[in-house]
Amino acid sequence: MSFSQFLTLLSWRDLADVLAVAVVIYYCLQLIRGTRAAQGLVGLALVGLFYAGARLLALPTLQTLLGNFLLFLPFAAIVLFQQEIRRALAGFGRNPFWGRSGQKHSPTTFNEFAVAATALAARRTGALIVIERLDSLKAYSENGITLDAQLSYDLLINLFTPGAPLHDGAVIVQGDRIAAAACFLPLTANPELSRDFGTRHRAALGISEETDALAIVVSEETGVVSLAVEGQLLRDLDAKMLLNHLYRLLVADLYAPGKRWA
Predict the structure, then answer these.
(1) Count of beta carbons in the 10 Å neighbourhood of residue 55
(2) Which of 228, 208, 236, 248 is nearest to 105 (CA)?
(3) What is the three-class DSSP state of 28?
(4) 162-206 tens-digit pLDDT
(5) How far apart are the two ends of the chain, measured CA to CA in Å?
């Protein structure tokens, strides 16, 4: 059969089917690129290759062993890729075709973030500011103290001042308002994270892994300003660098799945 004859047998449904599968595979690869899931996927592929080799070389014992393992492969994939699966479903849920839009941030808000973060860093005052994007942070703001106050430099400085009633925990920002303070966040379970990072950095990474939120974290020990996004940590930021990242992530709508900013 020639290539031209093959094309005549294809209908528009076949082409649409192939294109849809290609898009899904591309989306999944983008989602796990640069993550631990990519290493797990390579490991599973190697197991499949060993199984095929065992069948080809007629090795019954190895074939039986790997065959029994492959029976549990779907359950293993769910356990290994649970975070990526959750992120993929959340990505589909906030697809622009459904008409959802993120929080609106005015340009002055970025200045408030940058100035407050650098001022806290100069004082070696620890801080954790979480900025909501598309995924709702209501579940996390409800475990803190509700404020619903206009965002400002002075309020951020006062909230994180040592000894202040609400200085522990995170501040959650929705749009141009501080929704809550003293909020508890999930900690990252990444075993590759350096032990030098404390609870604030682990909480910042944890919320960025669970949701698409941004987290500005100021180290109390070193005074370094960092930004957590999609499970990655951008470190040692000055005011200008922080402004650039915030503008790119909050205004330029760079929400591509699997995009790594670190």
Answers:
(1) 14
(2) 248
(3) helix
(4) 988 888 899 999 988 999 999 999 998 787 788 888 899 999 999
(5) 49
